[in-house]
Amino acid sequence: MSALIIGGDKIDTVIKGLKNKEFDEIKHISGRKNGDKINSSINKAVKYDLVIVLTDYINHCIVTNLKNCNSKNRIIYCKRSWPLIEENIKKVLKF
Question: Is 74 helix (H, G, I), strand (E, B) or coil?
């Protein structure tokens, strides 16, 4: 499975947790750079099975664009806390 993480700076714990959940492809977009604000992050989100948006470390423009996106993939909005992320993954993916 594949996951896209948008937002956050220090996400080593999140990446480690996702690897333990058998996610083999993990991509990270910081969400703070000017280049991340455009729709390229939304276009990238369509390619992944799961999108995790770390809400306390992201530009508001990206969140708005993702909310308006009609993508079929699963998007989780959460703080940067592995227990919270894991709980939301279980709800969304039915682990």
Answer: strand
